[in-house]
Amino acid sequence: MFALFGNIDNPLPQVGPGYGSVQTGLPALIGNLIGLIITIGGIGLLVNGLLAGLNFITASGDPKKIEQAWSKIYISILGLVIIVAAFLITGIAGRLLFGSYSAFLTPKLFGPGDL
């Protein structure tokens, strides 16, 4: 049935196989997901910090609004510290356990042929 449509050749053969094999597929996907989570967290912190600054500017001297704005600023700074600390702790743990700072960020899977 698929012969009706003919052969479809890869238009980009120099790009590579992508997530095709066990050695490159799942570890690369996990590394990309970790990077995506860190990026989303950073963007969220940036947006929260900007909104806190906007709330601070528009508080008009109201102590309650100023306190809420400072609370958001403190939470943004705490979130940034947590993200950076998690990144550093995983790097140090990867270096101590596996000899590479990026061991947790770019994991490697070993199969029966690799032992």
Automatic annotation (TrEMBL):
<feature type="transmembrane region" description="Helical">
    <location>
        <begin position="73"/>
        <end position="98"/>
    </location>
</feature>
<keyword id="KW-0472">Membrane</keyword>
<feature type="transmembrane region" description="Helical">
    <location>
        <begin position="29"/>
        <end position="52"/>
    </location>
</feature>
<dbReference type="Pfam" id="PF18895">
    <property type="entry name" value="T4SS_pilin"/>
</dbReference>
<protein>
    <submittedName>
        <fullName>Uncharacterized protein</fullName>
    </submittedName>
</protein>
<keyword id="KW-0812">Transmembrane</keyword>
<keyword id="KW-1133">Transmembrane helix</keyword>
<dbReference type="InterPro" id="IPR043993">
    <property type="entry name" value="T4SS_pilin"/>
</dbReference>
